[in-house]
Design brief:
It contains four helices and eleven strands; from the N terminus they run E-E-H-E-E-H-E-E-E-E-E-H-E-E-H. The protein has 232 residues and is of the alpha+beta class. Strands 1, 2, 3, 4, 5, 6, 7, 8, 9, 10 and 11 form an eleven-stranded mixed β-sheet that branches.
Length: 232
């Protein structure tokens, strides 16, 4: 799928680590959990990293808390203990995290800032979600707020405050207003990126520490490419 550099235990980009969690900057092309492709998932890469770093015998515990689409990049949290996992799962499932994404889109949206509300219907066979402007059966309400941060030569950089976490939510909602993410062929981009990525990046994440109960925030630099480098 991709010619880009994938994460390995030796090049893993760790943003934060303590006894209870590890936060990494996912590269485009990394798959979070194993699937039919048989590619090594990022969860296994992180396990190998921890096993090597701490010279651990036997199996390493690691809990997958949430996911990012394979072609996207950015902040991903894993639980290092069975105590932290259910607490982190609860935070994410109840929407008690603040997630901000960056997206480079192919066309300037109708407004410089707006709140988008759609009902998303997922098609598992196509692995795609369809956005509807009115409530439909089987639809899940999806809300995001975007603002234009910078206009590039041929693209526009948006900052997205994600209010709900639905399947392909940002990709489907932006495509519906005519601002498809760069490289996202599945949702109507005119051409793919050479490395198979899309220009969608989980930029910041704020949550309550599952054990210490303090608010913690993370920021992930976007991938190294010419378009991202033109962003602020």
């Amino acid at each position: 799928m991709s010619l880009s550099v994938r994460s390995t235990h030796s090049n893993l980009h760790v943003l934060f680590e303590d006894n209870h969690l590890i936060v990494v900057n996912k590269r485009p092309g990394d798959i979070v959990q194993g699937d039919k492709t048989g590619d090594v998932p990022l969860s296994d890469v992180v396990k190998t990293y921890l096993k090597t770093k701490y010279d651990k015998p036997g199996n390493v515990y690691l809990g997958v808390v949430h996911r990012l689409d394979r072609p996207t990049s950015g902040i991903l949290v894993f639980a290092k203990t069975s105590k932290a996992l259910p607490r982190l799962n609860k935070l994410f499932s109840e929407g008690k995290t603040k997630k901000v994404y960056w997206a480079v889109v192919t066309r300037t949206p109708p407004k410089d800032r707006d709140i988008l509300v759609h009902w998303l219907v997922r098609n598992p066979k196509q692995n795609k979600s369809y956005a509807h402007s009115k409530e439909v059966s089987n639809g899940k309400k999806a809300i995001l707020e975007y603002k234009v941060i910078k206009k590039l030569d041929n693209h526009v950089l948006l900052e997205i405050d994600l209010k709900t976490g639905r399947h392909h939510q940002i990709r489907a909602q932006l495509a519906t207003i005519g601002s498809t993410i760069k490289g996202d062929l599945k949702y109507g981009a005119p051409r793919s990126n050479k490395d198979g990525s899309i220009h969608l990046h989980a930029r910041t994440l704020t949550l309550e520490h599952p054990v210490k109960k303090q608010s913690i925030s993370f920021v992930a630099p976007p991938p190294e490419d010419a378009v991202w480098k033109a962003c602020p």
